[in-house]
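[Discussion] Sanity-checking designs against the backbone

I'm trying to build intuition for which residues belong where. Below is a structure token string of 512 positions. I'd appreciate it if someone posts a full sequence so I can compare it with mine line by line.
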């Protein structure tokens, strides 16, 4: 089972890597076009609201609620029952989201007032932000239906198509930034419309694959359907519980809208760099373990359920700890190489770097939350994680209020990190106490080996690091060369140290 999960995880990670590389290319183009000024701030806020809700569906609550119920139907019921569930879920979900989209588009000024109250002090700024929100928000409808299609494909082990789908957002935005925006006075309008178009393209891309599997639904309203009700009951709390990190990031907008101009952009650019390893590894692992955990729970196979959870958490440590240290130690090189050109200034590099360091400290926690929450939702238990989520968000708001004064926007990033760490700890403790997970033997040795390998990697990176000023003074090719060299040497040092300590590929398939 673990070998199958590793193969599936590798597929998702590979597809996600392609998507994230294109995503970084998109950020390079956008940073070059708009830098970190007022136009960028407004666009990032306008896309942050539907993007937050997208993550609830595409990477969180919908999949966490839908796949366990769908897996149970596939295990215990007929194919006709499965198809009827798909018909009614797609129809109910689509109509609810359509209504929500209409309401938000009409009430966009009120929505923007709630999420970015500081913008109201500047009427022109507020009006443009409201217009951008009206254009970007329908993306939620399209991408949520895309997430529905992806969840169906994931449930039958077809992981590649959902994982590669996000590339179309990057492609649309890159085209808009290079070919359309330069000819407009309000360049952010072109980027906003590219998000709208990307949602349509992503949905259209997934439909033929559903049809090929004989799972293309015929939408029906099914609010009172037993399966739909179970999914909704799981999804409503899951929308909050599984995306605490994103909830915290969205609430940060309320605070950051009162800070100096560019603060929104600095946090956004740092967050996008953090999303690279989080999406490739953390979300990929959670994606592939959810269907397996759901089937194991439906089959009442507690032993395999526990082994699958242990495999996921062990792999997170193997990947997450070196990724955390790499992001921190190479923060200046990453920000400089990826963003510093055009309208993006050296002063912006310093600010984004500190935000990235603050976020990176919590990377392992962000990744752990994804997998630990999956352990609850696979068992169709949403009460525990939602209680934990409420505690974490309240704690995040308190930390925001405390840390924003001495550290400004960096304090908001630190608050998100601290609250996510609390969330991960409480989820882990809750899973242990409920009997859903008991660590397998060998964890102490695993931690020791990974820590020793990370120490070697860190020593190599510190010894070969050229210094921030040299990063800034060099051209693009030199920056890329240094970054590739450092990542290669650091990664080789990490893996070779683990190899010398006796870690082999089979330990990633099973247990060390």
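Best answer:
Here's mine. Compare freely.
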């Amino acid at each position: 089972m673990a070998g199958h999960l590793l193969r599936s995880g590798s597929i998702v990670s590979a597809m996600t890597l392609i998507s994230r590389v294109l995503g970084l290319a998109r950020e390079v183009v956008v940073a070059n076009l708009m830098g970190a000024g007022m136009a960028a701030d407004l666009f990032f806020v306008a896309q942050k609201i539907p993007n937050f809700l997208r993550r609830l569906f595409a990477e969180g609550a919908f999949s966490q609620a839908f796949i366990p119920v769908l897996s149970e139907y596939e295990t215990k019921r007929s194919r006709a029952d499965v198809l009827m569930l798909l018909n009614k879920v797609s129809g109910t979900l689509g109509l609810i989201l359509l209504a929500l989209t209409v309401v938000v588009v009409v009430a966009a000024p009120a929505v923007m007032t709630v999420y970015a109250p500081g913008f109201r002090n500047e009427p022109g700024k507020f009006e443009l932000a409201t217009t951008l929100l009206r254009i970007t928000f329908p993306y939620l409808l399209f991408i949520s239906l895309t997430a529905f299609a992806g969840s169906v494909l994931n449930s039958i082990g077809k992981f590649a198509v959902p994982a590669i789908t996000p590339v179309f957002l990057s492609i649309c935005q890159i085209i808009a930034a290079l070919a359309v925006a330069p000819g407009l006075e309000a360049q952010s309008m072109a980027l906003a419309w590219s998000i709208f178009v990307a949602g349509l393209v992503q949905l259209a891309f997934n439909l033929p694959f559903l049809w090929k599997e004989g799972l293309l639904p015929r939408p029906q309203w099914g609010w009172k359907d037993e399966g739909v009700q179970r999914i909704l009951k799981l999804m409503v709390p899951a929308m909050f519980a599984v995306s605490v990190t994103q909830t915290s990031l969205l609430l940060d907008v309320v605070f950051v809208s009162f800070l100096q101009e560019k603060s929104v952009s600095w946090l956004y650019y740092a967050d996008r760099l953090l999303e690279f390893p989080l999406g490739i590894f953390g979300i990929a692992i959670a994606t592939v373990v959810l269907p397996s955990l759901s089937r194991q729970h439906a089959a009442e196979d507690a032993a395999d359920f526990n082994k699958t959870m242990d495999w996921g958490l062990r792999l997170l440590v193997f990947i997450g700890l070196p990724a955390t240290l790499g992001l921190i130690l190479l923060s200046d090189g990453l920000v400089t190489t990826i963003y510093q050109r055009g309208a993006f200034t050296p002063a912006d590099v310093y600010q984004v770097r500190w935000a990235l360091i603050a976020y990176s400290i919590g990377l392992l926690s962000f990744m752990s939350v994804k997998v630990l929450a999956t352990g609850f939702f696979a068992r169709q238990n949403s009460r525990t994680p939602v209680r934990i989520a409420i505690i974490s968000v309240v704690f995040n708001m308190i930390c925001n209020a405390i840390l924003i004064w001495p550290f400004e926007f960096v304090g908001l990033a630190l608050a998100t990190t601290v609250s996510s760490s609390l969330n991960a700890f409480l989820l882990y403790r809750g899973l242990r106490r409920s009997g859903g997970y008991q660590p397998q033997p060998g964890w102490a040795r695993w931690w020791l080996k990974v820590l020793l390998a990370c120490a070697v990697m860190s020593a190599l990176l510190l010894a070969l690091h050229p210094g921030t000023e040299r990063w800034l003074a060099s051209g693009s090719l030199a920056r890329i060369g240094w970054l590739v060299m450092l990542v290669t040497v650091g990664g080789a040092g990490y893996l070779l140290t683990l190899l010398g300590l006796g870690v082999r590929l089979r330990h990633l398939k099973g247990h060390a």
